[in-house]
Amino acid sequence: MRFDKEGKFTVYVKWLSASHHSKMPIKSGIRPQIFVGGIKTSCIISELTGKEMNLDIEYEAELEIIFWDHYKHLFCGISKFDLYNGNMKLGEGYFVNPV
Length: 99
Description:
Blueprint: E1 8-15, E2 33-36, E3 39-47, E4 58-65, H1 68-71, E5 80-85, E6 88-95
Antiparallel strand pairs: 1-4, 1-6, 2-3, 2-5, 3-4, 5-6
């Protein structure tokens, strides 16, 4: 995995239209929960160009794990992840260079 700083990764992410009642774009800096290793934890997704992200399109983005020190052990050996708002799945993604 490529680390920009501890807890930051380059990822590809796609926001799912089935999880949204409107077709509004998702703004860079959104704070969903990432689901890995049976645990959900807070993260920040930032589109690399700073543009809005539309639904059902894959974007290269930066993923930052907010509580990295507590959950970094969950990220060993994973390549894919899901993004949630509570129990609603918002999107899915994968790491650019998984270990």
